[in-house]
Amino acid sequence: KLKNKVYDCICAPAAAAELGFLKTNLPVIYITDATFELVSNYVYSEFDKMSWFSKIEGNFLEKHALKISSAIMYPSIWAAESAVNDYHIAHSKIFVAPFGANIDKIPDSDIIYKKLENKQLTLLFLAVDWERKGGNIAFDVLKFLHYTHGIHAKLIVCGCVPPSHISHPYMEVIPFLDKNKKEDYERFVNIMSTSHFLLVPTRADCSLLVGSEANAYGMPAITTETGGVPEIIKDGINGYCLPYSADGNTYAALIAELFINDEKYQQLIISSRKRFEEHLTWQKWSESFTEIYRKNVLKQPRPAVINLN
Fold first, then answer.
1. pTM reported for the whole predicted model
2. Is 40 left (phi over 0), alpha (psi -120 to 50) or beta?
3. End-to-end alpha-carbon separation of the chain, Å?
4. Within a 13 Å sphere around the CA of 297, how many CA atoms are in the beta-carbon half?
5. Per-residue pLDDT tens for 79-112?
């Protein structure tokens, strides 16, 4: 279907397997959030039970995909450095541009102040994987806020169901919201606009897209310094990345400090939305893509005959 037609380039998101044996004289732009080397050796990796030979195959496909690419786009320096250090790819064809937030409609800017009307400290754990996203730590944060800091905070768990022994009178569990349904979408928007902090003490993440989504509503993210997360969440601007070893009380102490300081918290709301607008939208990503294409791909002569096998 692709042969004997005119193309400017091949744009290949998350397509190492597809590029692995591709032979073409067209320029390739490869877009992904991590290398195979990183994800196959990461904590909580889904590749833990993969055979040694399959890992060799995975790295082979990744290396070939990187080598045939004219430009490679990552959302983080963490991923970009792996391409250089683990696969010996030239710096000149690697570029970093954070992905955009996973939202169809950007909320109006004035919605960010709605959370100030909510006087109960409200934390949002928005994730589909309780364990990998640090649900146990988030639950500890709720308990420490209540019993150590004297703040009757609320924790909303949305997108997953905690283990049966995890319960608290100030924890609300919403297993799933379908944003294609009007009532679910309206409830989702209300949660995002009235919660004070996104709390995701993630144990493994290539790029914390939910952090960008929270920032769209002026909600700062309190998360973990791991993987590509620090490329999204900048300390004191749109949230904080705590050390991987931080426990629930460390998270709780930071959240309490930020919340009781009205001026500091309101400034964090404003700067979170500003970082979203300036760096974390798909419009900004597409501008980066266009610049990379023009400077590094468009200048390459288009082949008279397309070779695509």
1. 0.92
2. alpha
3. 11
4. 25
5. 999 999 999 999 999 999 999 998 989 999 999 9
Nearest to 39 by CA among 90, 83, 101: 83
Residues 91, 84: contact at Cβ < 8 Å? yes
DSSP 3-state of 16? helix
- Dist. CA 251–CA 182, nearest whole Å: 34
Is-contact 75 13, C-beta < 8 A?
no
Which position has the token pair 């008279």? 304
**What DSSP assignment string belongs to 244-291?**
TT--HHHHHHHHHHHHH-HHHHHHHHHHHHHHHHHHSSHHHHHHHHHH
Whole-number mean pLDDT of the chain?
Answer: 94
pLDDT on residue 303: 59
pLDDT digits 0-9 by tens, 34-52: 999 999 988 776 788 889 9
pLDDT tens digits for range 168-188: 999 999 999 998 999 999 999
Query: Please, which residues have CB within 8 angstroms of residue 14's CB and are 6 or more apart in sequence?
Result: 31, 32, 33
Average pLDDT over residues 124-148: 97
Q: Which of 113, 204, 111, 257 is nearest to 223 (CA)?
A: 204
Dihedrals phi, psi of 292, to nearest 5 degrees: -65, -40
